[in-house]
Design a protein that fits this description.
The chain is mainly alpha-helical and 414 residues long. It folds into two domains: 204 residues, no CATH class; 93 residues. It has 14 helices and two strands. Strands 1-2 form a two-stranded antiparallel ribbon. Helix 11 packs across helix 12. It is elongated and about 155 Å long. About 6% of the residues have low confidence.
Length: 414
Amino acid sequence: MAVQTVQNLPAQFIQDLGKDLATQITAQSGVPVVASGIAGISQQAGESDADFARRQQAAQDFTTRQQSLAGLAPQVASQDALQTQAQQIAQAGIGSFQPFLTAAQTEAGLASGLGTSALGGLSAIPTGAMTTAETQQFMSPYQSQVIDASLAEFDRSKQIQEQQIRDQQAKLGVLGAGRAGVQLAEFGTGAARERALLQAGLLQQGFNQAQAARQQDIANRFGLAQAQQGLGAFRSGLAGQQAALGAQAQAATGQDVAQLGTLGALNQAQAQAQLDAQREAARQAAFLPEQQLDRFAAQVTGLMGGYPGTTQQTVVPNPTPLQTALGVGTTLAGIYRGLGEGTRAFNAPFQKAAEGGRIGYAEGTDKKGIMKMADIDPLRDEYEKYVFDLLEQRPEAVPMSFEEFRKMVRSGQG
């Protein structure tokens, strides 16, 4: 078949940009991601020399980019003077209540003899650290439901964010790549840590509420014991002082724990900010080539959209050998008509002699020329062409006989 192809190509510089973009994408896809720098890379067991050489080159390029991007790397501001002063004051205040607590204990010891009977009546009041059974007793019955609902909402939000990351990777064409897995793993680790912190916070909140309820219950039972036993004002006051002493000691301990926890959280936040800044700087240096290539691809795509190209193909089927041979039927019909007229011209003198006339030849003819016309068969050449073309295209085909071919052509003369 004859195939005609028409292409409307964009401008040559658009084709060159597309070719250059494809070359860069192909080359970039084979570059390993190395974020440790040239100093921290070593050949691993089973790693070929060629693969190690590629990682070395990638690490060297990463170190170069990291140095080039030093001015753009994220920075973490250090603690200012007020923060440092506040931290020093807070640290100095840790345990400042101890002298007052010691004095209170001394006075309570002097009065303990007087309050022996009152203490005996109040011995049923729980003291010391709250036990597990007491924790469950004072815990809110809806605490577990609140925790489950909060964690479920956190998991749903995590799935949405994880899907957004996968969609972004798909748009960038890196879905399933090693760096994409690292990103998802890092996100999963952070989400797990945040989920654990959320759960711990909810549990701590429930524990604090239970502890407050226990303290309230102690106070309530203490008042009930005062009313029931009918102790005197002195003994009731002594018991109150001792109960207040325990509450103060517990509250002071809680304040110490809270202050230490606050200071630790500040230091941890500062250290985490520094680690995040280092990680962001390394990420920028590691993925700078991909980001530049993405920007280049977006610009090339925009240009190519303004210069669309199309390709059209037209298929014209070739005629079969038989169609070609039969196509000469009209021409051969004229030839046969000419032969018929020549034959009649040849027979005319003989017909005339039979009628008693003189034998001769038609004007412009002679016996030799008429015999040559009678010997020439104009279908023979076309029949041989038909056989040759048919066997060339279909070697297994069986051509029709010359007589069948002649009859078909003559029937076409009609």
